[in-house]
Amino acid sequence: MPIADKIQSFIDRASWIRKMFEEGARLREEFGAENVYDFTLGNPTVEPPPAFHEQLRRLAANPEPGMHRYMPNAGYPETRRAVAERLSRESGLEVSAEQVVMTCGAGGALNVVLKTLINPGDEVIILNPYFVEYKFYIDNHGGVPVEVSTRADFQLDLEAVAAAVTPKTCAVIVNSPNNPTRVIYPADDLR
Q1: Within this chain, do residues 112 and 178 fall inside the same structural domain, yes or no?
Q2: How far is the C-alpha of 121 from the C-alpha of 169, rounded, in Å?
Q3: Taking burial as the number of CB atoms within 10 A of a residue's CB, which of 96, 110, 121, 158 is the most buried?
Q4: Secondary structure of residue 137 in the 3-state scheme
Q5: What is the arrangement of strands in the sheet containing 144-149, beginning at the earlier edge strand?
Q6: What's the pLDDT score for residue 130?
Q7: Pair 89, 115 in one domain
Q8: How many CB atoms lie within 10 A of CB 17?
Q9: Sorting pLDDT into bands at 50, 70 and 90, what band is 61?
């Protein structure tokens, strides 16, 4: 059965970071893990602390009622409350549990945000260089990625960003520290 053209184009343009990760796995098989160093993904190499394993054993031996059921789409209410309280304390802003949505990783969070904001044909500004998955995330929700170059030192070119904004712009993705450059944008630029 043939694959849809759009999905085939995604496969053809798939993330080179993932391709390098898969190549690293192949090289470890061929040459041994002690001879191959994988710097492709933010994939933890440090195992969880013993307390984490103990808690897992405790929960497996004495499961709390309902712990194996589906949770609310936005996450467990008590977790959302705890996150909101911490964000409020650390930021000085008032954050409520209703404003917190738990996701599986940053990619999951970005997809939730983009699905919430993008109407078909809306534009999303991404700062070049950018994390390679951003275009896929935007396209998945019917958006149009608009690349805006940063300065030679990879700092924000605020004039270029302002010039790229159109009536179709619904979002600007800014991550700091930037992936892949590691540049941290000054607070004044972010304001």
Answers
A1: yes
A2: 9
A3: 110
A4: helix
A5: 144-149, 123-128, 169-173
A6: 93
A7: no
A8: 16
A9: very high
How far apart are the C-alpha atoms of 67 and 85, rounded to whole Å? 23
Measured in residues, the chain has a length of 191
Which residue range(s) make up the domain with 128? Answer: 104-190
CA-CA distance, 17 to 108, in Å (whole number)?
A: 18
Q: CA–CA distance from 175 to each of 29, 51, 181, 183 (Å)? A: 35, 32, 10, 9
3 state SS of 169: strand
- Regarding whether 74 and 63 lie in a shared domain, the answer is no
Q: Which long-range contacts (CB under 8 A, 24 or more apart) does 113-116 make?
A: 113/171, 114/138, 114/140, 114/141, 114/143, 114/171, 115/141
Give the global pTM. 0.76
Q: Tokens 């996450």 identify what position?
A: 75
Q: Is the pLDDT of residue 110 over 90?
A: yes
Work out whether the CA dihedral 179, 181, 185, 190 comes out positive or negative: negative
